[in-house]
């Protein structure tokens, strides 16, 4: 699987950075993105490979994986 990080502009003109979607292909990730943000414009797309098995990576690589992940904001 691949993690796609999008920077988009919504239909009202608001810029949103770091929308992260895990998908098998960019096409699938954009389809999911457009389900959440109707009529958005994709300004940038970044992709990062997600390893299948974290045990094979080693502790240093696991720490790097979490350190480079985009922040998650939870609003109540």
How does this structure look, described?
- This protein has 76 residues and is α+β, with helices and mostly antiparallel strands.
- The protein has a single domain (2-67), classed as Roll (Ubiquitin-like (UB roll)), CATH 3.10.20.
- Helix content is 26%, strand content 34%.
- It contains 2 helices and 3 strands.
- It has helices at residues 26-36, 59-67; strands at 2-9, 15-23, 41-49.
- Strands 2-1-3 form a 3-stranded antiparallel β-sheet.
- It is elongated and about 45 Å long.
- The termini are far apart.
- The mean pLDDT is 83.
Roughly how many Å apart are the termini? Answer: 29 Å
Reported CATH architecture: Roll
| Shape designation | elongated
CATH topology: Ubiquitin-like (UB roll)
Helix content: 25-40%
How large, in whole angstroms, is the Cα Rg?
14 Å
What's the level 1 CATH class? Alpha Beta
Question: Main beta sheet: strand number and arrangement?
Answer: 3 strands, antiparallel
Number of contiguous helices: 2
Tally of separate domains: 1
State the order of secondary-structure elements, H for helix, E for strand. Answer: EEHEH
């Amino acid at each position: 699987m691949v993690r796609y990080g999008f920077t988009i502009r919504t239909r009202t003109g608001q810029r949103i950075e770091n929308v992260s979607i895990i998908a098998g292909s960019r096409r699938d990730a954009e389809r999911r993105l457009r389900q959440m943000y109707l009529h958005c414009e994709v300004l940038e797309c970044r992709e990062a490979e997600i390893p299948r098995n974290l045990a094979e990576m080693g502790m240093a690589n696991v720490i790097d994986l979490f350190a480079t992940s985009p922040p998650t904001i939870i609003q109540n």
